[in-house]
Amino acid sequence: MTYDLLIKNGRVVDGSGTPAFHADVGIRNGKIVAIGKLSGNLHGTAKRTIDAQGAVVAPGFIDSHCHYDAQVTWDPLCTYSCYHGATTVIFGNCSLGLAPVRKGESLKAKEFLSYVEAIPMDTLNTVSIDWETMGEYMDVLDKRLGVNVGTLIGHSPVRHYVMGKDSQSREPTQDEVRQMQTLVRDGMEAGALGLSFSMSPSHYDPHGVLIPSSFAKEDEVFALCDVLGDLGTGVIEAASGREAEEKTGLMSRMSERSGRTVVYNQLTQQLKKPEDWKEQIKRIDASVARGLRAIPNVCPLTVTTDFTMHNCQVFRGVPSFHPILLSPDAEKLVKYADPEVRKKLHEELIEMKTELKNNRVLGKNWPHTIWVQKVVLDKNRQFEGKSLHELAEMQGKGVIDAFLDLVVEEKLDTAFQQGVQGYDKEVMGKLLNYPNAIIGLSDSGAHVQYRVGYGYSSVLLGNWVRKQKVISLEAAVKKLTFDQAHTFGIYDRGLLRPGMAADVVIFDPDTIDALPLKRVDDLPGGGWRMEELAVGVHYTVVNGQVLLEDGKHTGALPGKVMRNSLYQQRTSV
Q1: End-to-end CA distance of the chain, in Å?
Q2: What is the pLDDT of residues 232-279, one digit of tens each?
Q3: Chain centroid to CA 133
Q4: Which residues lie closer than 8 Å to 484 by C-beta, 6 or more apart?
Q5: Which of 26, 140, 175, 541 has the smallest number of Cβ neighbours within 10 A?
Q6: Helix, strand, coil: what percent of the chain each, to 5?
Q7: Residue 26, strand partner residues
């Protein structure tokens, strides 16, 4: 046999979670055709051979929580997910999307996407929308793709298509619900991977009005989920679903009603309630035990906030802190040195005598989640990297005194860092390995000018696998590949097996990581964004063709639109 591509001498991590093994991988006509010792003459020749000695050969990663809905129209590679080994990206999340849209009425869909996901409107205004239906949108995308893309049907554009401006003010009539069901059915029959909602109380449009999906009552949500249940295909995604699941079990009930998998945001350790993740897992386990498929995302990214006490958001809403934060620096120094002020702060933040209703980030363990990042005075270097709890213990002081003594001594210039997400190694190990959750939530394509998450897979493999050793390489790859493909109904990907699509990533497990962010001025309309590249990712192969080689695009555009199993069954007949 002649292979189009032969990857030899690699350490195969096949996506199943079973131990890695050394083998060659033979690819022909966009499919994997053989795995084993294929380098000898008896096994034929290859048009191109890649020597993967010392590297891992794995299925291409599936980045399932993205917002490339618009970017894909000018950037067929959907940068920068593919630089981190993603061969498939999925967008249409959080109820957003650019289809369906009525002719000449695309502005609102762009506004929803722009304001919720922090994508410059000047950039989105360069996108010429010459489609109306979800099917037409996918057909346009299918003409020019570097990576594979799948899309969910966003509830917000569906609701706006049917109800217009009323979609952001009232409940629909029964006839309007039926119209929405028809749009969802048409989109699913055209191949969409599923349907997305937003349960978030903070997803607004640029005019300060909640996006359409936020106005939906349960009856409307269930009616649309019923369409997927009737068709027997598709996944349901819900932004901010955790809160709805905690209050009423809505995610589980959506899965029970429709028979479909529901994916929602997110399983995490919350700053204000650092032990709540344990209760969340108990609820998920109980739901799974009932045979339901309502599973959360877990994000592997460590999110931190850097601050000084010149201008600090962390303590906003704390009664005695808040007015001081609004005062001039000279007055701050006086107040922070005042024993009476410190006494009140101790009562509010250490003894917790006052409920901090207007502060969302400070829980009882807050002194353990804020660290001294950089000091001004040489004599204080010993405190760098120490938590405020450790700072206090080192000096035999209370936390408030130790903290504010340092702040006053260094005239507010001390740099601190607060862990917001992914800061507790032990907890992250449990969350990342939790079998009833998927790893994702990169938000790739969103908030492009500040917190980007393109490199979530490189962080998982570089930090949590290699450095922290809290999850095995095989388990991490399975989370990035098979688990995603299975959840989102992309059944010909996610494993290295003969007959499967040849989406492959080749990376160095000893060096893979996300590189520091860098500003690049490459958005349409004259905009800029943050670039996040990778180190240690040698090849990204899509449908048997090398898309990226050592971080350079080969010029190939082998991507396809991923369509659901119902569409594939009907079109293969």
Answers
A1: 29
A2: 999 999 999 999 999 999 999 999 999 999 999 999 988 778 889 999
A3: 26
A4: 61, 62, 64, 438, 440, 490, 494
A5: 175
A6: 35, 20, 40
A7: 6, 34
